[in-house]
Amino acid sequence: MLESLIAWLGEDAGAKLAYITNGKHMAWYASVRFTLIAAFGSALFAILFGLIGAAFKQSTFLPVRWLGNIYTTMVRGIPDLLFILFFPLAFERLVEYFLARVHCGADVLAAATGWPPCTEAQWLLSTGDYLLMACISLGIVYGAFAANVIHGAIQAVPKGQLEAAAAYGFTPKQVFWRFNVRQMWVYSLPGLSNVWILILKATSFLSLLQIADIVQWAGRLGGANYIARVGLVHPDWRWKYYMVLFIFFILLTMISERVFAVLQARASRGMSLAGVNDNV
User: Which of 117, 136, 223, 235 would you label with 176, given CA atoms 20 to 30 Å apart?
Assistant: First the structure.
């Protein structure tokens, strides 16, 4: 089928089509899955850490409230690039340290001049392992942003409605889950949409964790390609491949905005939108 299409397009167009559908380019297209998995996985961890952080900030127990404030303040100030490099490497070294304590023995560990001290302590991570740790790293970073958004949304729910619900006989637990949390999502979705966009942008760091993502493949394919038997195949075309990535992320952003608009409309059904529209 591909040969018939090439013949129909003509020699020049067919050659270009054959080039962008070769094995390396197909691997580039397939690497999109790493970006999407990292984005959705990081978003789930960000919501989880955001809910925990917001709950800590809402706590009446002062030390717990301090922990919530420390988390949202300190983590937001750490560059996400630094965090995505530090957390996987630190966790890998921690695991290898415990493996060394178990398999290498105290004498070998004390006399070691390199790391790991013995081969049994070496932890070889797969692409899936690095992808999981990238999701957790980004989830921790952007969970701090989500925690602030959720905390502010909880505070924005009109207190009069909560008091009215309590007056009608709802228990404090029912008031929290049926009224406070239910309306909190309406106020938090605009802010959470910004957190999601930041997560999408941060997935471009995956190549730093030995993950062959779309950014790494774009650099490989776009770099000047020289083969000894044929000479220069093409000069530096990286700007062309990065332009494709520009368009790809813009399309993801446009789709995300549409999805969040639908979620906002769905969550706002049956509610007064005056306060929500002011926040947006």
Answer: 136
